[in-house]
Amino acid sequence: xxxxxxxxxxxxxxxxxxxxxxxxxxxxxxxxxxxxxxxxxxxxxxxxxxxxxxxxxxxxxxxxxxxxxxxxxxxxxxxxxxxxxxxxxxxxxxxxxxxxxxxxxxxxxxxxxxxxxxxxxxxxxxxxxxxxxxxxxxxxxxxxxxxxxxxxxxxxxxxxxxxxxxxxxxxxxxxxxxxxxxxxxxxxxxxxxxxxxxxxxxxxxxxxxxxxxxxxxxxxxxxxxxxxxxxxxxxxxxxxxxxxxxxxxxxxxxxxxxxxxxxxxxxxxxxxxxxxxxxxxxxxxxxxxxxxxxxxxxxxxxxxxxxxxxxx
Length: 312
Hints:
CATH class of the largest domain: Alpha Beta
Strand content: 15-25%
Number of strands: 13
Order of helices and strands: HHHHEEHEHEHEEEEHEHEHEHEEH
Mean pLDDT: 83
Shape: rod-shaped
Low-confidence stretches: none
Strand order of the largest sheet: 4-3-5-13-6
Helix content: 40-55%
Structural class: alpha/beta
């Protein structure tokens, strides 16, 4: 159990029905219990009961009858001035929370590699768009939850993963596909530019220790083709594996995009293989309910402009 104390003002008001404030305001505006009941789609007796509760709470009649109208007392007028604008603003914010322009902070959950692959281009595109929003990235490498759980528990707005999530409440789209290549140190003593199946079996390798189903499927096919290999270093980071290969005799399998971006600067060389690796597909997933948020839809449109892939 959390040891955080409940704020004292919340403790004091926990037995107060906040609906009474809304009903009071509608009575104040229309000067009539009957009209207030019609506007609120309630019975007149229910509204009268609410008014009586508020009268007891404030120790004041609040309204007195003058013909067909209810006239507010001085206490009612002061109470209206106290809560009117703030209550109206609060109601507006609650009603428009999922779609108004203020809700523009989005959390993205992905591996560090997927973040490197996607987020720089996304942020650059956002800088040149009319959508002004804040992006927070949560790394999947350091989290115990699966991306599917992250979506189900609403801990992130978008998940990038190498496996799709098929559920009634989510949208999953293939976002991009990574070609896999073999690399080694450009000073490797035994491997030149060409890597054969036989050489691959006999050379030490790094292993990408990531448990997503999409990546495991590709790794399993590689194992079936190449057989057992000498994995004497493993990491959940492509960057770490690549850096280890650059400083040792170990061969790494990495995305071609990663090599094109920083492979040569790390001291790696791309190896031509006499066998092919299956590509690794990446998916974007989000809850369907997010499509009611206009800023989220605009964010998807910015992503679509980068990849030319329809994401809705």
